[in-house]
Amino acid sequence: MRIVIAEDNVLLSSGLELLLTARGFHVAAIAQDAPGFIDAVDEHRPDLTIVDVRLPPSFRDEGIHAALQARRRHPGLPVLVLSQYVEQQYAGELISDERGGVGYLLKDRVSRVSEFVDALRRVAAGGTVMDPEVIAQLLTRSARDPIAGLTPRERQVLALMAEGKDNTTIAARLVITENAVHKHIGNIFAKLGLSPTDRGHRRVLAVLTYLSHR
């Protein structure tokens, strides 16, 4: 099984490589940043990827952005995200993509070697593996935040709506078509539970919901 790893911490990436090699996996490449990871995936077409959420240069969410980009370029690509933190917004988008295996584990789970290896095999086989802490935080946020279920793109569209931008301006700002904007807005209305009978007010209600949960 070929694996590509995205991890900038040399000690951790070396440890992962030793652990995986000893258990019969083949580490095809280790990337230290998002562009290197994308290039490695394109080159090696791995059976599984392991991605740290926070990569250079800003150490915010480059890793999970790269994982989402890789899955768009290679639909069904199995991705196991490792993180010290729960990035709720992007974790939700990754989980909602049903094409291929996906996992999200906190880094302290790696020390439980047998469980970690089992998780790798399950994700590579198309399954889903979620850290209990990730699930707990996602459920907690969803219960109190009605915009938590929006994708990052839908949140961008809603943020621009809150700035008073019309669909044409939003399309130009995000470099997408107006039809795409219209579709995103329809999804936003549906996810926020705004009825079509409130046709004249849904845009205002969506913006008010966004502003009250920023």
Can you give a write-up of this model?
Keywords: DNA-binding, Phosphoprotein, Transcription, Transcription regulation. Residues 2-122 form the Response regulatory domain. The modification 4-aspartylphosphate is found at residue 52. With 214 residues, the chain is an alpha/beta fold. It folds into two domains: 2-143, Rossmann fold (3-Layer(aba) Sandwich), CATH 3.40.50.2300; 152-212, Arc Repressor Mutant, subunit A, CATH 1.10.10. It is 53% helix and 14% strand. The chain is built from ten helices and six strands. It has helices spanning 10-22, 34-44, 62-73, 88-96, 113-124, 132-144, 152-162, 167-174, 178-191, 202-212; strands spanning 2-6, 26-31, 48-52, 79-83, 102-106, 128-130. The chain has a six-stranded parallel sheet with strand order 2-1-3-4-5-6, with helices on both faces. Helix 7 crosses helix 9. It starts with a strand and ends with a helix. 31% of the residues are buried.
Quick rundown:
The modification 4-aspartylphosphate is found at residue 52. The protein is of the alpha/beta class.
Instruction: Catalogue the unreliable spans.
Output: none
How helical, in percent, are the residues? Answer: 40-55%
Label the structural class: alpha/beta
Radius of gyration: 19 Å
Number of helices: 10
Outline type: elongated
Report the β-strand fraction as a percent range: 5-15%
Largest sheet: 6 strands, parallel
Q: Secondary-structure element order, as H and E?
A: EHEHEHEHEHEHHHHH
- The CATH architecture assignment of the largest domain turns out to be 3-Layer(aba) Sandwich
CATH class of the largest domain: Alpha Beta
Question: Any idea how many domains?
Answer: 2
Our measurement of the CA-to-CA distance between the termini, rounded to an integer number of angstroms, reads 43 Å
CATH superfamily of the largest domain: Response regulator
Number of strands: 6
Strand neighbour order, sheet with most strands: 2-1-3-4-5-6
**Average pLDDT metric:** 85
CATH topology of the largest domain: Rossmann fold
